[in-house]
Amino acid sequence: LRNDIDLPTHFMTDEQQALADQAGKFFMSEFHHLNAEMDDTDDLPPSVFPKLGEMGYLGLNVPPEFGGAGLDFTSACIITEQMSRASAAIGLTHVAHDNLCVNNIYRNANDDLRRKYLPGLCNGTLIGALGLTEPGAGSDALGSMRTTAKKDGDDYILNGAKIYITNGPIADLVLVYAKTSPEKGAKGISA
Ligand SMILES: Cc1cc2nc3c(=O)[nH]c(=O)nc-3n(C[C@H](O)[C@H](O)[C@H](O)COP(=O)(O)OP(=O)(O)OC[C@H]3O[C@@H](n4cnc5c(N)ncnc54)[C@H](O)[C@@H]3O)c2cc1C
Q1: Does the pTM exceed 0.85?
Q2: Does the 14-125 domain belong in CATH 1.10.540.10?
Q3: Position in ligand 1 atom list of the atom nearest CA 168
Q4: Which end of the chain, N or C, is less surrounded by CB atoms within 10 Å?
């Protein structure tokens, strides 16, 4: 890995550059040395998410009232880029948690669900994932989806199969996409 390459910085403000420098140094010192171990074990060291939470790198786009960092999307991209330079694996695990799951819940869930899940997802005690793709539903995920969710009292019964779900094996919370009104086709899907 080359650390001496000058990245183009002309598009960043001084504040964004400072954020990139600070995040880059932290990720390089904390995460880069874990890459060989993760390749060997095919697993994520349990210290990673609590450390990200402690340093304020979870819930990047979630307001502080729900435990997040309250940053804009450009800042989140800068942090993701720096994290991925230090460890592509941790960069991907983080973006699946933080954008696909956490920001999705913040933007789309009601306040009860936000208050129930976001604080833990933002402090690193809960790991999140998003389950959309299926063995027969990739690029055309919404059109070809077969997983269904049927209401049963206070619960939903899920039937189906998902594949390629980043963080799937380690997640505490999976935001699953399923057909709740199959007769409505791609418009009958809930998360
Ligand atoms: C590293 C990684 C992490 C992932 N994480 C997640 C996750 O966290 N959650 C989740 O839900 N999913 C996840 N996925 C799944 C990802 O979203 C799917 O792989 C993606 O949607 C493509 O689907 P597919 O693999 O079934 O490929 P396919 O849809 O079968 O596509 C195969 C090829 O056919 C081409 N193709 C497809 N349709 C057409 C068309 N109509 N016209 C022309 N060409 C076409 C595609 O461009 C591609 O080259 C992940 C995938 C990867 C690789």
Answers
A1: yes
A2: yes
A3: 8
A4: N
- How far apart are the CA of 141 and the centre of ligand 1, in A? 9
Which 3-state string (H, E, C) describes 19-44?
A: HHHHHHHHHHHHCHHHHHHHHHHCCC
Residue 11 is predicted with a pLDDT of: 81
Which pLDDT belongs to residue 49? Answer: 98
Residue 75's Cβ-side half-sphere holds a number of Cα atoms within 13 Å equal to 18
Question: What superfamily in CATH does domain 131-190 come from?
Answer: Butyryl-CoA Dehydrogenase, subunit A, domain 2 (2.40.110.10)
Q: Among the atoms of ligand 1, which is closest to the Cα of residue 130?
A: 9
Model confidence over 156-190: pLDDT tens digits?
999 999 999 999 999 999 999 999 999 999 999 99
Q: What is the pLDDT of residue 22?
A: 96
Q: Identical fold at 14-125 and 131-190? A: no
Distance CA 25, CA 31 (A): 10
pLDDT tens per residue across span 73-95 = 999 999 999 999 999 999 999 99
Site to substitute for ligand 1 among 102, 164, 166, most atoms within 8 A of C-beta: 164
Question: Rg of the chain over CA atoms, in angstroms?
Answer: 18
